[in-house]
UniProtKB/TrEMBL annotation:
Keywords: ATP synthesis, Hydrogen ion transport, Ion transport, Membrane, Transport
Organism for this UniProt entry: Puccinia graminis f. sp. tritici
Endpoints of the signal sequence: none
Protein name (database record): ATP synthase subunit 5, mitochondrial
Cellular localisation: Membrane
Length: 266
């Protein structure tokens, strides 16, 4: 289990948080989440000022990695062949860009380096900042769209989401992630919930129906007719232009409004 070596390293090597420490406000998954939670527990155990300073340190590292000069540091973080002396020198160089980072921050990255987990740096920072948002009672809502959201639409979504029960008594922050592969629609993530209203999810559902239809067609063509009608109804209801074709050797679905074949099987 990943959490075991993480907490042992943080405890034995640097005297970090123990199991009795104050727990993070939300539970994070994955290796990066374990490291971020351990750092949060170590910082909050000291005091709020330390917690805030560590957040500033990590935010500064995030900005450095996103800058023009960040590519060299990223290469360093993702290089598994570095000797201990080279790793120490690289970490010292990265820390120097922060001005005066806390000992906790420096020790934490030493642990990441010793455990061969420096490649997780960006994910750890993102997870830690999510913990800090939850610590302040903020709710980060991630809206994934095929294209950047217009400011007017984003404002309406934000106003609507603020009225939801899940966001009561919390400061809502909207984060728009652009992912063209979802084709259209929206995917809304908040807390441990996901609402998938994307075109891709609809197409995947149709693909599942088409697979069933194709399986039935091998046995008897007439059994497939109701499925084709259902597919036509689905796309009509969702305001799609569609073309559904069927014969003994081919069944296909084209989303004409996208001018691309989204499913084809022969």
């Amino acid at each position: 289990m990943a959490s075991g070596p993480v907490y042992r390293a943080l405890k034995c090597t640097r005297g970090y948080a123990t199991a009795a420490s104050k727990q993070p406000p939300i539970q994070l998954q994955g290796l990066s989440g374990k490291y971020a939670s351990a750092l949060y527990s170590a910082a909050v155990k000291k005091d709020e000022k330390t917690l805030s300073t560590v957040e500033k340190d990590l935010s500064s590292i995030q900005r450095v990695l996103s800058s023009k000069d960040g590519s060299a540091i990223k290469q360093f973080l993702h290089n598994p062949t570095l000797q201990a002396s080279d790793r120490k020198k690289g970490l010292s160089n990265m820390m120097s860009k922060l001005g005066q980072p806390t000992e906790l921050t420096k020790n934490f990255f030493d642990v990441l380096g010793e455990n061969g987990r420096l490649y997780e740096t960006e994910k750890v920072i993102e997870d830690f900042l999510n913990l800090m948002s939850a610590h302040r009672g903020e709710m980060t809502i991630t809206i994934t769209s095929a294209q950047p959201l217009e400011s007017s639409l984003q404002s309406r979504l934000e106003a609507s989401l603020k009225k939801s029960t899940a966001a009561e008594s919390k400061t809502v922050r909207i984060k728009n992630v652009v992912k063209p592969t979802i084709l259209g629609g929206l995917i809304v993530d908040f807390g441990d919930k996901t609402i998938d209203l994307s075109v891709l999810s609809r197409v995947n559902k149709m693909n599942a129906l088409l697979h069933v239809c194709m399986h039935l067609s091998r046995k008897r063509k007439s059994l497939c007719v109701p499925f084709v009608s259902l597919i036509r109804f689905f796309f009509h209801r969702n305001r799609f232009e569609q073309e559904v074709t069927f014969n003994k050797r081919h069944i296909g679905l084209r989303c004409l409004s996208r001018k691309a074949t989204v499913f084809s099987m022969t």
